[in-house]
Design brief:
By secondary structure, the chain is mainly beta. It has one helix and four strands. Helix content is 9%, strand content 39%.
């Protein structure tokens, strides 16, 4: 079974936009995600985005 959600965008000022991808609660529960848990987004190709768990305690790089 799949879970669907929509991309949300918040516009702040003329240039600053933030995109949000919401993880439905049943999916988060099935994955046992915790609040504040670091994850890594990996672009596989134009149609595939992978989310990887980051080992706890490991600092994540922020790319801009």
């Amino acid at each position: 079974m799949g879970y669907f959600s929509k991309v949300q965008v918040i516009q702040r000022g003329d240039r600053n936009r933030q995109f949000y991808l919401i993880c439905p609660a049943p999916l988060a529960q099935a994955l046992e995600l915790q609040k504040g848990e670091p994850i890594e987004w990996v672009i596989e190709d134009k149609h595939r985005l992978t989310i990887k768990r980051t080992p706890s305690g490991q600092k994540t790089k922020e790319r801009r």
